[in-house]
Each structure stands twice: as structure tokens, then as C-alpha cells.
Amino acid sequence: MSTKQFDAEQLSDLVKDNTFGLKEIPPEQSLIEYPTDFPIKVMAQAHPELIDVLTELVLEHDPEFKKETIEVRPSSKGNYTGLTFIVRATSREQLDTIYRTLHGHELVKVVL
After folding, report:
1. In terms of Cα–Cα distance, which of 104, 99, 106 is closest to 85?
2. Would you tell me which of 38, 48, 75, 85 could form a disulfide with 80, CB atoms 3.0–4.6 Å apart?
């Protein structure tokens, strides 16, 4: 199995444009049927305003999102918080935008 190698400049470019080397999937090849409820998992640095801030970001792209549906899991030492947002996904573009928006926040470490 071969692994693609990137130099530091290539990695920087991938992170800047938020593609991370992923290729666009044509809508006809998507395994997701829209609209659908879709879970987005976030791992972020713990902060008192984390939930409110990330909720506002999600609401920009899913105006019907309900804050009370967020699942919250603090880390054992309390340094990080795991969150699950169930969004109403209407398109691949919308999901990609939500992922990029969340990933771009300074407290967010991982978005799955």
C-alpha cells in the first residue's frame, strides 16, 4: 500500500483551502440522499462559550438547527469537549460548508 507524501508547502496549501487533498464527489455518486439528518462530530478545546459560538456557526447554514439537540462529552481532564451536532443536510455543498466553517474556528481541533 502506498501513501502519498506531501511537503510542508503542499500541506499548508491543502489546509488553507480546506480541501485536505479530498476530491469532489459528483452528486450522482454520493451515498447520502438529501435532505437528511446528519451527525457532525467536533472535538474542541474546552471553553465556557464553546457551545454558543459553534451553535451560531451551524445556524448560519442550517437555520432550523436546535441547540438542545447537541450531545456534549467533556474529556476526562476537562481540557477538551466532544460535541455532536445533528444538522438537516440539504446538499453536499451545505455539509462541506458546515465542515469548513467549524474546522476554521480557533478552538476546534477535529471535525468528523
Report:
1. 99
2. 75
Say how far apart CA 18 and CA 68 lie, in whole Å: 29
| Cβ pair 111, 102 in contact under 8 A | yes
Name the residue range of residue 42's domain: 34-111
Residues 6 or more apart whose Cβ sits within 8 Å of residue 91:
34
- Predicted confidence at residue 30, as pLDDT, reads 73
- How far is 78 from 81, CA to CA, in rounded Å? 7
Please indicate, yes or no, if residue 23 is contained in any of the structural domains: no
What pLDDT sits at residue 65? 97
Q: What pLDDT is stored for residue 108 in this prediction?
A: 98
**Directed axis angle between helix 50-59 and helix 92-103, to 10°?**
150
Give the number of domains in the chain.
1
- Give 10-residue mean pLDDT values along the chain (112 residues): 53 52 66 94 98 98 97 98 98 95 97 96
How many C-beta neighbours within 10 Å does residue 111 have?
A: 19
